[in-house]
Design goal:
heterodimer; A: four-stranded antiparallel sheet; B: 11 helices
Chain lengths: 251, 293
């Protein structure tokens, strides 16, 4: 599904990532963990096309997508969400999701502006599809509310709904549980599992270890810009190097 | 002061205000999509009028055919402007972009002067010059054309931005460009669309006002600044607030010219512009700005 090989990222004189390679299997929930400053978010920004890496490659479904802009990647089926949710604040919740379906729209600017009948019915289709995703994430009752006015937790769900509307093959989530209370986090865990059940591959950066250990099929551990370990949550919990990185070495 | 006279000023202010509103919305659309003030906006207004004249005189087209041709060519030049002057910039900082639009406007104005000379020209009114009495005041048929066409365009604009996917995508770019890219919106294409829409609207404004005020190679400067002023009053909204801004400006100008002195007509616009920028930079109706950062 997603293959990352030999990613190195240098900012000025600082090496944020050094020769990181891993691959992610279709249909897995993979967690990327590591202490602060390990390079998790940098890795995400590279995979999702926000930064261009100093060297290395990102392969999506065996196609090299290194250096492609985010909108290209979205069309190729990879979307992401942000730690600080990024919404279209002045638009309604429903409109936010409808915009995610933009790529599915076939009639162009002209047809839309001239109010062609097929463009009208298409808008209805898009509206219906958008509502479906709001229901999936459980915020359909907020459909007509302005996105800037909803709570942080609901905003996160909206961001996920909008990303899902693109009908991605893989979704990257940057700290989806950050800023959520424990009840919301529980709901999020179930939601992520339901996303996986749709056949969508999930990759998340997360600090909430309970969440990560609970839902992830595999984990990737970064430390100081290098890959430290990779494996099932069970294996990672027993890995001495990982424990040392988190708790400090006993020696 | 008689009521009739006042009514007369307000009515003629409304129609100039409508023109300012159209131009102002053009400024706002580009600003919202790209974050830049397109100071070449006025030149597309000028091109609308001058190209109509070209198609009327040189190509001998009837007015109803010359107008769409002029709109098409002005829109194409707006598109070309984006492609040649805005898009190639690799590191577009706002200040670079603004300076480029100023340079572009000087270039377009210069080329127009070479092509059409410095003379002032008139376009025939769309339907006669028989004044119509409204209460104790009179208006020209062209005033009605201006108000009608402006209303139509504003309604179409509203429909586009709120009821089509492409329009919603453009609003999404205005709110959060990064997130827009991440959901697959081609932001650069939206920028091109914004230039297409605003040059088309600008040229329409230039065409419908030309029978009243005449047109020349340099009318874009003043009309552009007045439109900018309307957009500032409206807080750079691409909707109702800028329309109201344009109308307020038009009416104040016309009242000022009538009641004080016509020499102060342009000064009034710029006093308002400065006052708004000093006191309420977020526009008359805007909330304090926070979401565009």
């Amino acid at each position: 599904m997603l293959e990352v090989s030999g990613i190195t990222q240098i900012f000025g004189g600082v090496t944020a990532l050094e020769d990181v390679s891993f691959s992610i299997k279709k249909g897995d929930i993979t967690g990327v963990i590591g202490p602060n400053g390990a390079g998790k978010t940098t890795l995400f920004n590279i995979i999702s096309g926000i930064y261009t890496q100093s060297s290395g490659h990102v392969l999506l479904n065996n196609v090299d997508v290194s250096g492609q802009p985010p909108e290209k990647l979205a069309r190729l089926g990879m979307v992401r969400t942000f730690q600080n949710i990024e919404l279209f604040g002045g638009m309604t919740v429903l409109e936010n999701v409808m915009v995610g379906l933009h790529t599915k729209s076939s009639s162009g600017l002209l047809a839309c502006s001239l109010r062609m009948p097929w463009s009208r019915s298409e808008e209805l289709n898009i509206r219906t599809a958008a509502l479906k995703w709001l229901e999936f994430t459980g915020i359909s009752e907020l459909a007509e509310v302005t996105a800037g006015n909803i709570s942080f937790g609901k905003g996160r769900l909206l961001e996920i709904a909008r990303a899902l509307a693109v009908e991605p093959g893989i979704i990257l989530m940057d700290e989806p549980a950050a800023g959520l209370n424990s009840r919301e986090t529980l709901g999020l865990a179930r939601l992520i599992q339901r996303i996986r059940d749709l056949g969508i591959t999930v990759v998340l950066v997360e600090h909430d270890m309970d969440l990560v250990m609970d839902i992830c099929d595999r984990l990737l551990v970064l430390n100081l810009g290098r890959k430290l370990a990779e494996g099932t949550p069970q294996e990672i919990q027993e890995n001495r190097e990982v424990i040392a990185a988190y708790l400090g070495d006993a020696d | 002061m008689q009521f009739d006279q006042l009514l007369q000023y307000v009515l003629s202010g409304l129609s100039t205000g409508a023109i300012y509103a159209l131009i102002g919305i053009g400024f706002s659309i580009i600003y919202n999509a790209t974050g830049i003030i397109n100071f070449a906006q006025g030149e597309f207004v000028m091109l609308g009028g001058m190209l109509t004249l070209l198609f009327l005189d040189s190509c001998k087209l009837p007015l109803w055919a010359a107008i769409p041709c002029a709109i098409a060519v002005s829109t194409a030049s707006g598109m070309l402007f984006e492609r040649l002057a805005i898009r190639p910039l690799r590191q577009p900082t706002p200040i670079n972009l603004v300076i480029i639009t100023i340079g572009g406007s000087i270039l377009i104005r210069g080329l127009s002067m070479l092509l059409w000379g410095k003379d002032t020209h008139a376009i025939p009114p769309f339907s006669g010059e028989e004044p119509i009495a409204v209460g104790g005041a009179t208006i020209l048929p062209q005033h009605i054309w201006i108000l009608g066409i402006t209303l139509l365009i504003i309604a179409a604009n509203k429909f586009y931005f709120y009821h089509t996917i492409s329009g919603k995508a453009m609003r999404a770019c205005a709110y959060n460009r990064r997130a827009a890219g991440l959901v697959g919106i081609d932001v650069r294409r939206m920028v091109l669309f914004s230039f297409i829409i605003s040059s088309a609207m600008g040229s329409v404004a230039g065409i419908i006002v030309a029978p009243l005020t005449m047109t020349a190679y340099d009318v874009g400067v003043m009309l552009g600044l007045k439109g900018f002023c309307a957009a500032i009053i409206g807080g750079m909204s691409s909707g109702g607030a800028t329309v109201v801004g344009g109308l307020i400006l038009g009416i104040l100008e016309s009242l000022g010219a009538g009641l004080i002195s016509s020499g102060y007509k342009d000064a009034i616009a710029f006093i308002i512009l400065l006052l708004i920028l000093f006191i309420r930079p977020q526009g008359l109706f805007g909330k304090a700005q926070s979401e565009r950062v």
